[in-house]
Amino acid sequence: MTQALTPPARAAWRLPSGRLAPAAALAGLALLAVLTLLWASAQGAYAIAPGQLLRMLGQWLTGQEGQGGQATQALVFLHIRLPRLMLGVAAGAGLGLAGALMQGLFRNPLADPGLIGVSSGAALAAAFTIVLGQTWLPGMKLGLGSWVLALAAFGGGMGVTVMIYLLAQTQGGTRVGLMLLAGIAINALAAAGLGYLSYVSSDEQLRNLQLWLMGSLGQSHWPSVLLVGAVVLLCALAARRLARPLNALALGEAQAQLLGVPVERSKRLIVVVTALAVGAVTSATGIIGFIGLVAPHGVRLIAGPDHRVVLPGSALLGAALVVGADALARTVVQPAEMPLGVLTAFVGVPLFLWMLRQFRSGL
Q1: Are 90 and 120 in contact (CB under 8 A)?
Q2: Model's pTM, two decimal places?
Q3: What is the pLDDT of residues 58-75, one digit of tens each?
Q4: Rounded Cα–Cα distance for residues 132 and 176 (Å)
Q5: Which of 11, 13, 88, 257 has minimal CB crowding within 10 Å?
């Protein structure tokens, strides 16, 4: 009888709500990211068996060189596939982290890094470079993957962020609602600019522009990996200081101030970190949608709304999603390659609708 009245003991890795404990959730997401990375390493037009992949990594770490076919596989993996995988990890982590920050700032689960126009600003600057770059910089190499294009996209994203932040300033501080409205206006202006540039571009410029807008990791190389990885790592370190302010902002700005949170400084830092992460990623990969929207939802489903878990969890899940989607993009239509942004939309929309249904059933 005593046993019947005693509630069953709950596993240490689960919370009373049924969700995973923070440590269990982060460990599971880290394991998912590692397994996805290992799986994606073996996929592609030049398939590499898992056993051969492990032997190759061992030879690389010990400084040995393979012979014959093994040497060819090592060249393909180390110089083409590995930088692509690492750029996918950095891009996914940056987009997932930015999505979690935006959703926390706007207190809206439908918020996305593109909502305040950062991605659109980067896209418009890149389009200007592709279509009009040869006029401004004759003789410069301005193809996809060039550093001029990446620098223009990064500058465009940061410029839009500064403009939106100044527009949202009032005597009472930064108004999030004004920031959202300014972002909508910037997105509309960028769409009009892209339409005009598409109209006046040549066939080759139009093809390059469309490829860039659809997103891809195909132009990855080690310098871009190191640059994007360093920026995303700095953003992740800065975001660690934002978990408590975001948890307080979920109660409202007035309550957050009563709890001692520096609201204005936190909002500025959130916007700057988001702009840096999205600008760096977009400059190297083009537009990759839905990762910043889907990844934070997935983490909240399994671990709850605590930003101490949502921020790092979104980075891990975003990395797994981008690496997995890129592996599919490289394999589903071989020997061609599907644009990554198209594939993330195909996968992200049904996944988002499924998660929306899970949220509704949990209310």
Answers
A1: no
A2: 0.85
A3: 777 777 766 666 677 777
A4: 35
A5: 11
